[in-house]
Design a protein that fits this description.
The protein has 1284 residues and is of the alpha+beta class. It is built from 48 helices and 19 strands. The strands form six sheets. The protein has a four-stranded antiparallel sheet with strand order 11-12-7-13, with helices on one face. A three-stranded antiparallel sheet has the order 1-6-5, covered by helices on one side. Strands 2-3-4 form a three-stranded antiparallel sheet, with helices on one face. Helix 14 packs antiparallel against helix 15, helix 27 crosses helix 31 and helix 39 packs antiparallel against helix 40. It is globular and about 95 Å long.
Length: 1284
């Protein structure tokens, strides 16, 4: 049947234009232009408008079924064209492999991909992308490729081509699943989502509650903050409100105005402080007009995200009030007189903290102990005796019983896989079935098991470690007699153990980079919450129910035991084994002074063999009443059948690992709603202390007390995010840059925006009563009897002046009951009175940094810090005489800072090389910079290969050709290192002597040719090197020529360290004050008028702005110049929601990214923002940029390369300071200046992480102080011993 007319329409969105001509459609949008030919379809296509919307209609007259189907097809194609030019398309592909890792090389700016090592094949598969399609690696997911483009057909065709290149041929595809598969497809530009509420480690959006003002009661403000965070009020919150009110913080405004020091003293969670501060802050005029409707809309929008969770919680149980009826302190001494608090306490046993689905908890496949045959049981007994016992000829330390039980469980799981999945009968099972041979091929079954667990059971990479460790213990048992006694490390001469060690190392790397399966926000407790949990458990140690009826004595004993387990862990940060093995009189002792302590010998804790007898772990006195009551009175109610202190309430047996674990976890779930477990307590303590800025000496002492190293504490127990760890470095750089910009009207005050309110006449010698009256007046309070009593108590304890109170420590404040806010106000008044007429700056933790050194500015004193107009075109260039004597525009290379003279180059040029030599160098580059199966060393950065390896290889080849007269046809890389023995370095030794004697090169450059030779030796003799069998083994060191080269490099480095510098440091080095003066001078040059008042060319103004920004950003972002070269607005240069400009780097955007991963945001100082925003929005276009990079060459518009940034900086420094400073020295200047100012070690460590390197690198490379400057503090320290 034919239809008279059928049609379909496509709506054309705003910003998209469509042209239709002869059924050829051309679509133009923000992302580009796409076109498609529909001339083969018998349809009509035309544009029309309907209700103000532009639409495309596709019509078909007298069409049958097939022709009518073409209408929808044409509409879908046009819709895809529109989506492509507005949002683009994105396809994701995953690399799947079992044994041979698939290596991917992306070339030609993402338009070509090379696939290597598929199923171990040597063939290189090449796929060229269709026009408009680019491919890149995913930054977030391992082994993932992302294809992007506007044309959906081209993008999907490219994914198909890649997939087809990796099809398995001539094998069972049910078994061989290797390949590259499409995992996800969609649009490139996602729809904008509402800001997600952050967790403990994420940035949270502030939720303004209706009616919360600075004068609101603290309890109301805290209730609103908890509601906005989706949390139920608990005992810890009630305790916090009580503590704040005792210290004069009674309103929301008081809490919002607290400083970091006050937060630390009172234990206020930073997140709560931010929430209340956001509530009481006045909204910006442009974003938040006044009026109740706007406030209500704000609150509704922000709280909408947690509405579902809050509704569910309210349905499950009624909301508990913020203030519990029963106080948690001042409990009666007699437990039988205490009454249980009224608190809803549902057991949240159904809470899941992992993202794993039900498939992860399918039917267990492991073999139970009773299923084992008698032969298998005998084998397991022999394995246990071998692993845990002590015998003659033993080569490794025996395992602890608990470790063996974990390994035995993993081996039973592996046996269950062989039996239930692979169908091997029980009678044929033995431990040798798991590792059938002592060679490397013996791990094949374990590899299949690991693949099966990951693909079928969905286990995380972090769980792959235990099966490998268990297999290593089994291999030692099975093949003990086959191993040589002198093998080092033990058993590594066995191929199966060496291969298992390699697998373990790889699994460790995968686990380190894998995301946590558990949702940390469902487990983590802030320290204040944990303290509240301890108090709540103490309140439950009561003999009466909430209604006043007596409780069963066994219930009271169980409550006491539960409280003691949690409370002791809160003051003794140790493993749960310590609690399980507590015995009164053996590990739990009472000293002569009455203190209860836990005493451990070397066999009583995990690291005892390494650390020996342990210092006594002191239990806090507040636990003593309940501890002594439990020991002497209540423990007997549990009918203990073990000498251990803690026993199971029902059976009386000693508590095992699971009993302690679930006792703690169930209490945490019931009281806080979070599945916290006792293994996290150490992490919480260390993280809290690090956040509070505890000194490094105290943290080192804590590590010793906890029985581990400081490195372990930093790497395992410190759960701060990178952003939290580098916060001191950000503050440090902001303070350092404080005097660089000309800020108009800096607001002073103790809290940044408020004016310092110094009471007239208040000095350190002022009477305490007068100072107290002034402080009460500043706080808006009238003096009362309690204040008079406080003054009397202070004077009785010799605190008679305002200075005495301001100098009090935290311990003194606590002992005498001095409100923290009173102490803070008194300190503020004294600081303000010390600097009359100026803003208080007590927020800075390092006053030394705030006072710059006396700099030698190139500007006159009147022009050094001019009040520059905001409009650049109204500024006038300063008339400055250059300190550089000579041509002002002369290239910076004309100034020499070294006595060495340039000589004719002897390097072999590319044009001189034979095709074979050129091919060898290309192969060397691929070997050195790419990843491949069997790789033994980390690949080099391309820039390192280009500037070191390739450069010095060409120099050595030029020496062989031009000096030693070897013809070009005979040159090859093997000419440089002719053999793999130690004698292969003879040519390099001759070359080094010739450079030193004939060319006069410095000793510091001798290491670079050796480094290049090491890379060449690895390439030439890769096949001779043995795979790494030990994590401590060095790659290629079994090749003699490499070992000899490394020894030469070590000797050359020692000689270089002792050799004097060739350059004259005084001609390059700027003191920090001089560098700040240079930054200010460059800012003054960002002017639209000449010194005479005439307009400057706009391109010159843009070049001045660019030059200033390069130097100014380097002064506040201590990073390599690559950061400046690769700045792109929207990619690496971002503007945060709070208006701050930051530089954000992924692992591939900076040199040490592979080691340190995603980098914390590098914050640009606010004084740079006016010029930065003016350059981006107005002036950059005057340079005619031909690149998306922020900084471009003024003449060509091309992106700035390494030399352009270098000479832009160096020429500016020469012109303004007369010194040949270059950008590589800025980091040295910053670190040296901060070290000279006595910056704390914690801040310097944070700065090292901020800069993307280690603290050792900072000390050894960037600290340019002389030895005399470094030992000055020691000289002063020793002189101070005798007060001289």
């Amino acid at each position: 049947m034919k239809l008279l007319i059928s049609n379909g329409t496509v709506t054309v969105p705003d910003g998209v234009s469509i042209e239709v001509k002869a059924r050829r459609v051309r679509v133009k949008g923000p992302r580009g232009v796409l076109q498609r030919d529909f001339s083969h379809l018998a349809v009509d296509m035309y544009l029309f408008e309907e209700e103000g919307e532009k639409k495309l209609k596709v019509e078909c007259h007298f069409g049958k079924k097939k022709r009518l189907a073409a209408i929808r097809t044409a509409c879908s194609h046009v819709q895809n064209l529109i989506t492509g030019v507005t949002k683009g398309f994105e396809y994701k592909m995953r690399l799947v492999y079992a044994h041979f890792p698939i290596n991917i090389n992306i070339e030609d700016k993402g338009t070509k991909v090379e696939i290597r090592n598929f199923l171990g094949e040597k063939r290189v598969r090449v796929v060229v992308m269709k026009p408009g399609v680019t491919i890149r690696r995913s930054d977030a997911v391992k082994d993932e490729l992302i294809l992007e483009g506007n044309d959906i057909e081209n993008v999907s065709q490219c994914t198909a081509l890649i997939h087809q290149q990796c099809l398995v041929k001539n094998k069972d595809i049910r078994k061989f699943l290797d390949g590259i598969y499409t995992s996800e497809s969609g649009v490139l530009v996602k729809e904008a989502h509402a800001g997600k509420a952050g967790g403990r480690r994420g940035g949270s959006t502030c939720a303004a509650a209706p009616g919360v003002t600075p004068q609101s009661d603290l309890a109301e403000a805290m209730t609103a903050a908890l509601s906005a965070a989706g949390r139920q009020p608990g005992p810890a919150d009630a305790e916090l409100v009580r503590r704040l009110k005792e210290n004069w913080y009674k309103t929301a405004g008081d809490v919002a105005a607290m400083t970091q020091e006050e937060l630390s003293l009172l234990g206020v969670p930073v997140k709560l402080w931010f929430s209340i501060k956001a509530m009481v802050a006045e909204p910006p005029p442009m974003q938040q007009p006044a009026g109740p409707a706007t406030v209500e809309a704000r609150a509704r929008a922000v709280l909408a995200r947690s509405a579902a969770a809050a509704s569910a919680a309210a349905a499950a149980s009624p909301q508990r009030p913020l203030f519990e009826a029963a106080a948690l302190d001042d409990l009666p001494g007699d437990i039988m007189q205490r009454r249980m608090p009224r608190a809803a306490a549902p057991l949240a046993s159904g809470v899941r903290v992992t993202r794993a689905g039900a498939a992860s908890y399918a039917q267990a496949y492991g073999m139970r102990a009773e299923e084992l045959t008698p032969a298998l049981r005998a084998e397991f007994d022999a394995l246990q005796q071998f692993s845990c016992g002590v015998f003659y000829g033993q080569r490794v330390e025996p395992l602890r019983a608990i470790s063996y039980s974990c390994y035995a469980s993993e081996l039973r799981s592996l046996l269950g896989y062989v039996h239930r999945v692979r169908g091997v009968p029980l009678e044929q099972l033995s431990l040798r079935t798991l590792l059938p041979s002592s060679g490397r091929e013996g791990v094949s079954l374990l590899l299949d098991y690991q693949r099966w667990r990951e693909t079928t059971r969905g286990t995380s990479p972090r769980s792959a470690l235990m099966p490998i460790k268990a297999a290593i213990a089994l291999a030692r048992f099975l093949y003990h007699d086959a191993s040589q006694p002198g093998a080092r490390p033990p058993y590594r001469d066995l191929g199966v153990v060496a291969e298992l060690a390699n697998m373990l190392r790889g699994a460790h790397k995968s686990a380190k980079g894998a995301p946590l399966v558990a949702d940390e926000s469902l487990k983590w407790l802030e320290w204040g919450e944990f303290q509240g949990m301890v108090r709540a458990l103490r309140a439950e140690c009561a003999g009466l129910t909430p209604g006043g009826k007596p409780r069963a004595r066994s219930e009271v004993a169980a409550s006491l035991q539960r409280y003691l387990i949690v409370a002791i862990l809160s003051v003794v940060p140790d493993r749960q084994r310590t609690l399980r093995e507590l015995e009164v009189g053996r590990t739990l002792l009472r000293r002569a002074d009455g203190a209860w302590v836990i005493k451990h010998g070397p066999g009583d804790y995990k690291t005892g063999k390494q650390y020996g007898d342990r210092p006594a772990l002191v239990i806090a006195p507040f636990i003593y009443p309940e501890l002594e009551a439990f020991i002497h009175t209540w423990r007997v109610e549990l009918r203990p059948a073990s000498p251990r202190l803690f026993v199971k309430p029902r059976s009386g047996a000693a508590m095992d690992e699971n009993a302690v674990y679930y006792t703690f976890k169930q209490a945490a779930l019931r009281l806080t709603g979070k599945a916290t477990h006792l293994h996290l307590v150490r992490d919480m303590i260390v993280t809290h202390l690090r956040q509070q800025g505890t000194s490094e000496a105290e943290m080192e002492a804590l590590a010793l007390l906890m029985g581990h190293s400081l490195a372990m504490q930093r790497g395992t127990y410190d759960r701060r995010t990178k952003a939290q760890k580098v916060t001191p470095a950000v503050d440090l750089m902001m303070r350092l840059s404080k005097h660089q910009g000309e800020h108009a009207g800096k607001a002073g005050g103790r809290r940044g925006g408020s004016t310092c309110a110094a009471a007239p006449g208040v000095t350190p010698q002022s009477d305490l009563a007068e100072a107290m009256t002034a402080a009460l007046s500043a706080a808006g309070r009238q003096p009362g009897p309690a204040d008079a009593e406080l003054v009397r108590r202070l004077k009785e304890n010799w605190y008679k002046t305002a200075g005495d109170v301001a100098a009090m420590t935290q311990e003194e404040l606590s002992l005498l009951g001095v409100p923290v806010k009173l102490w803070a106000l008194m300190r503020e008044q004294l600081q303000c009175s010390a600097a009359p007429g100026s803003s208080s700056d007590s927020g800075s933790s390092s006053g030394k940094i705030d006072q710059p050194q006396q700099e030698r500015s190139v500007l006159p004193a009147s022009a050094a810090e001019p009040p520059l107009p905001a409009d650049i075109m109204q500024r006038r260039m300063p008339a400055v005489a250059s300190l550089f004597q000579g041509d002002r525009n002369a290239p910076a290379t004309s100034v020499r800072v070294t006595p060495l003279q340039s000589r004719a180059s002897y390097s072999l040029k590319d044009s001189e090389m034979t095709p074979a030599l050129r091919a060898e160098l290309a192969e060397l580059e691929r070997f050195s910079t790419s990843c491949f199966y069997g790789q033994l060393a980390q690949p080099l950065q391309p820039v390192t290969f280009r500037t070191v390896t390739a450069h010095y290889v060409k120099l050595m080849l030029g020496y062989v050709h031009r000096v030693r007269g070897v013809p070009l046809e005979q040159l090859s890389l093997r000419t440089l290192l002719p053999s793999s023995g130690r004698e292969g370095v003879s040519l390099l030794l001759d070359y080094q002597r010739w450079r030193e004697t004939t060319r006069g090169t410095a000793a510091r450059t001798a290491t670079l040719p050796i480094k290049a030779a090491v890379h060449v030796a690895r390439f030439l003799y890769h096949d001779l090197a043995q795979p790494l069998g030990d994590s401590k083994a060095r790659p290629y060191h079994d090749v003699e020529v490499v070992a000899e080269l490394v020894a030469m490099q070590r000797g050359a480095q020692k000689a270089a360290d002792k050799a004097p510098r060739v350059m004259d440091e005084s001609l390059k080095w700027l003191e920090w004050g001089e560098f700040q003066g240079m930054v200010r001078a460059l800012r003054a040059e960002c002017a639209g008028l000449t010194p005479g008042g005439k307009p400057r060319a706009r391109s010159e103004v843009a070049a001045s702005l660019q030059r200033y920004l390069i130097v100014a950003i380097l002064s506040v972002v201590p990073d390599r110049q690559r950061t400046l070269r690769e700045l792109e607005v929207g990619r690496t240069l971002l503007r945060r929601a709070d208006g701050a400009w930051v530089i954000k780097h992924g692992p591939g955007d900076y040199k040490t990214g592979k080691q340190y991963g995603d980098r914390p945001a590098l914050v640009i100082a606010p004084f740079i923002y006016p010029e930065l925003e003016a350059f981006i929005h107005t002036w950059r276009v005057e340079l005619r940029p031909a690149s998306p990079r922020l900084f471009v060459k003024p003449r060509s518009g091309a992106a700035m390369d390494e030399n352009a940034v270098y000479y832009t900086f160096k020429q500016a420094a020469l012109r303004l300071t007369g010194k040949a400073t270059h950008p590589h020295l800025v980091r040295d200047m910053i670190v040296t200046h901060l070290r000279q100012q006595g910056t704390s070690e914690a801040e310097m460590e944070a700065l090292a992480m901020y800069m993307g390197h280690s603290l050792a690198m900072q000390r050894g490379t960037y600290d340019r102080r002389t030895k005399a400057q470094k030992v000055t503090p020691a000289v002063e320290l020793l002189q101070g011993l005798w007060g001289s």
